[in-house]
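[Discussion] Sanity-checking designs against the backbone

I'm trying to build intuition for which residues belong where. Below is a structure token string of 278 positions. I'd appreciate it if someone posts a full sequence so I can compare it with mine line by line.
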């Protein structure tokens, strides 16, 4: 019987180390391959375009039929064409002008159209009138906001003894112009203060403004004595003024040597004459 002799080989450390490296590299390569495939799949899903409306409609019909697959792939035709270079018209809708200065100055032009209107003005707000006399006032009518109509003038109710007339009585279209109002008071017209209404009418529009009229007393005056003689050395004199109640008066002289005043008495005047040559 022969004994089997086993030849023992000496251990090789480098060979054992390489064998360990090969055995550990396998799982690492497999992990990297799986990671690359997963990354590619997610990249493909993120860059894929969603279905068009028509495709979505077809998918909806499929879902209604029971398919239930809303994520079905949709084929989109791709057409290849030659690249062209040309100008494209561009239209900008906006308010105003591209010129900022013009835009600001005409900003109010975009507002609603003005309402037609009529303006009436008088040359003076009041006048004084004595019985038996006349006075005039100038009126101006102005058409604004597209107003275009004949205009007529009139007054409100007048007190008894006062009459009014216009020249002209009215204005042709568009209604702008002037007229003269003449007020005449009768001789027996009672003095008082009145407020009259001046009216302009046209195109369904009426404008009214007030006018104050002061009817004054028709005053007459008398003085007694009507004359006096002064010596060369001068002197003092007095005279009495007679007039109706409410009539105003004042004393004055055209000669520097003669001075008149009213020393507290409403109807008496004091006259002082200085010496000649002084």
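Best answer:
Here's mine. Compare freely.
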């Amino acid at each position: 019987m022969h004994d089997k002799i086993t030849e023992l080989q000496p251990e090789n450390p480098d060979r054992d180390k390489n064998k360990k490296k090969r055995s550990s590299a396998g799982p690492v390569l497999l992990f990297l391959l799986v990671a690359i495939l997963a990354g590619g799949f997610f990249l493909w899903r993120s860059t894929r375009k969603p279905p068009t409306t028509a495709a979505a409609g077809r998918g909806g019909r499929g879902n209604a039929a029971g398919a239930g697959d809303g994520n079905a792939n949709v084929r989109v035709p791709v057409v290849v064409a030659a690249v062209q270079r040309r100008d494209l018209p561009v239209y900008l809708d906006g308010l105003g002008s591209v010129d900022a200065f013009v835009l600001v100055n005409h900003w109010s032009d975009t507002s609603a159209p003005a309402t037609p209107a009529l303006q009436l003005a008088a040359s003076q707000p009041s006048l004084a009138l004595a019985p038996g006399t006349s006075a005039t006032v100038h009126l101006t009518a102005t058409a604004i906001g597209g107003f275009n109509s004949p205009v007529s003038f009139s007054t409100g109710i007048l007190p008894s003894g006062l009459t009014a007339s216009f020249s002209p009585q009215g204005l042709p279209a568009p209604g702008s112009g002037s007229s003269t109002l003449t007020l005449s008071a009768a001789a027996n017209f009672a003095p008082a203060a009145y407020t009259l209404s001046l009216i302009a009418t046209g195109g369904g529009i009426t404008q009214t403004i007030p006018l104050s009229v002061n009817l004054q007393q028709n005053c007459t005056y008398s003085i007694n004595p009507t004359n006096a003689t002064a010596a060369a050395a001068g002197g003092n004199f007095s005279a009495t003024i007679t007039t109706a109640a409410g009539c105003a008066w004042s004393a004055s002289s055209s000669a520097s040597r003669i001075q008149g005043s009213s020393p507290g008495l409403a109807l008496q005047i004091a006259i002082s004459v200085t010496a000649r040559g002084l």
